[in-house]
Write a structure and sequence with these properties.
Elements lengths: L2 H4 L3 E6 L7 E7 L7 E4 L6 H4 L7 H6 L5 E4 L27 H19 L4 E6 L1 H12 L4 E7 L14 E2 L2 E5 L6 E5 L2 H10 L10 H12 L9 E5 L2 H9 L13 E7 L7 H10 L5 E6 L12 H13 L13
Parallel strand pairs: 3-4, 3-5, 5-6, 6-11, 11-12
Antiparallel strand pairs: 1-2, 2-4, 7-8, 9-10
Length: about 325
Amino acid sequence: MSAAATELPEERQLASSQDPGARMHVRTRGPSGGTPLVLVHGFFQPASAILDVPGWSLQQALAGLGRRVVLFDLRGYGQSTRPAFMDQPPEASRPALGRLADAVADIGDVVEHVCRVEGCPQVDLLGYSWGTARSCAYALRSPQRVRRLVLYAPVWRPVSGAAAEAAEPGHPALLNRALGGYRAFGAGDLERQWDGEIGAQDTRAFRDARALQAAEQALLASDAALRGRGYRSPLGPMQDALAVAQGRPLFDATGLRGEVLLIRGDHDRLSSAADADGLMAALGTDRRRLVTVGQGTHLLHLEHARTTLIDEIAAFIGDTLRPAPQDRAPC
């Protein structure tokens, strides 16, 4: 890892163009020059925690390869400001903040800031989990700002995880009435999710026990208001997941024209093989590649196989993607 990656990151609070009272936490690592890489987090876990876990940081690993890497927490997540409704009991509000439109606006604010500060016309985007849908939605709106798109643990028509809870049981057209405006997570939740994907196999074959401890500590520390007891995430994405329950994808894959890398772990249940294959076939570009990493779950970047993930990402954002014939989906 280079010295640039181990230096203290640049931290700032960026004003939201959508809500004058809201600020987004932005963290930057790595040397200036070239095309910056912007990381977009998923449904529940803020980027400042899950993508920058001490000792297993995806941001630091990529910055260590000589890239300018920027991550940020969307409004309502992590170290960004949270709206007043998230200080009330969850059931006192309904899912709102965090929809794709909110994320597109936040990504736009961050990308414009990065391009202005770095003096560049474009960025590369890396979306993780639900952040892949958020990144694709932004790329569809502002294709001139996106050079290359990395979809790590992609979701398009997800059928498991939070998306499975969006609809009222027996009424797929209605949002689940049991959902509040946000969800709170506590100690042990990450381990249960992770071990659920690993299944009956020995967890040591997938991860170092210290990675779990470090990731959980990072997540629990990400919400200052809860003083290390847990963290809160808005449930607005459930509104978008409802469309999936009704048979619609999260975004129009046919409209994506640039270079796209899809990469997932073979044990990933949230980003399923079927969903990744379907997205691969639907993409409106032949400059695309799908990579499945063995012995990897939805938290691949925290596992033993993370080196393969990092190598694939580095190769993709460093050189023009020229997919081999077997990487192309039938047109």
